[in-house]
Amino acid sequence: MKNLSVQRIYDALIDIIVEIHCEINALQNLMQILGYDRKGSHNESRKLIFVGDLCDRGLDSVAVIKLVKYLIDNDNAQCVLGNH
After folding, report:
1. What residues are paired with 52 via a beta bridge?
2. What is the rounded distance in angstroms from the CA atom of residue 40 to the CA atom of residue 2?
3. In a designed cystine with 57, which of 21, 37, 49, 66 is the match (CB 3.0 to 4.6 A)?
4. What is the CA radius of gyration of the chain?
5. What pTM, to 2 d.p., does this model score?
6. What is the pLDDT along the chain (84 residues), one digit of tens a residue?
7. Distance of CA 39 to the CA centre of its chain
């Protein structure tokens, strides 16, 4: 069984995104600016690392969590959780 709590970081170029706080529109816009498609693929094979709070203050916790989970499930992202 794979230990999901301890993982090696990607051996690829990465973009680190911090403190999303439920801001789904800002996250989607940032991903687009960085060159990621809706599935989290990047034409330079870059990967996303999320650090900190995914939810807490913004308007759409569920959408942010679903998107980040989708990106992780498709091996386009990793996540270090914050306290929210």
Report:
1. 81
2. 22
3. 21
4. 12
5. 0.86
6. 466 667 788 889 999 999 999 999 999 999 999 999 989 999 999 999 999 899 887 778 999 999 999 999 999 999 987 675
7. 11
Count other Cβ atoms within 10 Å, centred on residue 9: 10
In three-state form (DSSP H/G/I as H, E/B as E, the rest C), the secondary structure along the chain is CCCCCCCCCCCCCEEEEECCCCCHHHHHHHHHHHCECCCCCECCCCEEEEEECCCCCCCCHHHHHHHHHHHHHCCCEEEEECCC
- Which residues on neighbouring strands pair with residue 15, listed in sequence order? 48
Query: What does the pLDDT read at residue 56?
Result: 80
- Cα(80)–Cα(3) distance, integer angstroms: 14
Q: Which residues contact 80 (CB under 8 A, 6 or more apart)?
A: 49, 50, 51, 52
